[in-house]
Amino acid sequence: GAVVSQHPSWVICKSGTSVKIECRSLDFQATTMFWYRQFPKQSLMLMATSNEGSKATYEQGVEKDKFLINHASLTLSTLTVTSAHPEDSSFYICSAHPPRGDYEQYFGPGTRLTVT
Amino acid sequence: QKEVEQDPGPLSVPEGAIVSLNCTYSNSAFQYFMWYRQYSRKGPELLMYTYSSGNKEDGRFTAQVDKSSKYISLFIRDSQPSDSATYLCAMKETSGSRLTFGEGTQLTVNP
User: Fold this and answer.
1) Among B30, B51, B47, CA closest to B98
2) Does the distance separating the beta carbons of A32 and B104 come in below 8 Å?
3) Closest residue of B to A93, CA-based?
């Protein structure tokens, strides 16, 4: 089956610093990757859609200068939370869509970010 | 109004019970209907998917889609404690790859 990994799985950082989260599709190429944010006991909130080789498309209300997304290759997308603050603490999940799939999105295991 | 509505629960049932999870939606362009299971602090995993209307069965799980009513269901038979998780419905239009999720229903199956 298709596997998507995320690194790190858990990170604690100090307020004002930046954190980079990696999302990799391990056994398939992903033309499109998605970044979600999830608060406790809530559903996934789509933050942005990332297409390989082009700029990410951000959802309304998501600050593109704060959440930098890079999709430099067909197997790797990164999310950088810049100048993190405690309110950025959340569970960040990526998913990858294979190029010939109709509906499939394969999800990573998530990254728990805690900003102190 | 949200595009997809799902009762967040929580839902608590005894082991062996039949569980019914439901979502309603308003976007008639949705054609793909998925159910994901998410364990605590993990990413969602795809359980079932259905294209357009109809039923689909996979072991103890049955997914139903009624497009005329804009209503989808997931049934779990002979529920097990290992089924305890949050279940998310998700939907997609024919074009594009964006999913729209429900809020998720937290299920606990008690031994």
Assistant:
1) B30
2) no
3) B43
The stretch A4-18 carries a mean pLDDT of 96
CA gap B58, A3 in Å, rounded: 22
pLDDT tens digit sequence for A12-42: 999 999 999 999 999 888 888 999 999 888 8
What tokens does B20 get?
């019914």
Percent of chain A with pLDDT over 70: 97
What is the token pair recorded at B77? Answer: 């038979």
- B32-70 exposure pattern, b = at least 16 Cβ within 10 A, e = fewer: bbbbbbbeeebbbebbbbbeeeeeeeeeebbbbbeeeeb
pLDDT per position as a tens digit, B57-95:
999 999 999 999 999 999 999 999 999 999 999 999 988
CA distance A27 to chain B (A): 17
B99 to chain A: which residues are within 8 Å by CB?
A: 34, 46, 105
Strands B71-76 and B19-25 turn out to be antiparallel
Asked if the C-beta of A60 comes within 8 angstroms of chain B's C-beta atoms, the answer is no
Chain B interface mutation, best of A43, A92, A100, highest count of B Cβ atoms under 10 Å: A43
d(CA A53, CA B73): 38
Measured CA to CA, the distance from residue B105 to residue B86 in angstroms comes to 5
A-chain residues within 8 Å CB-CB of B106? 41
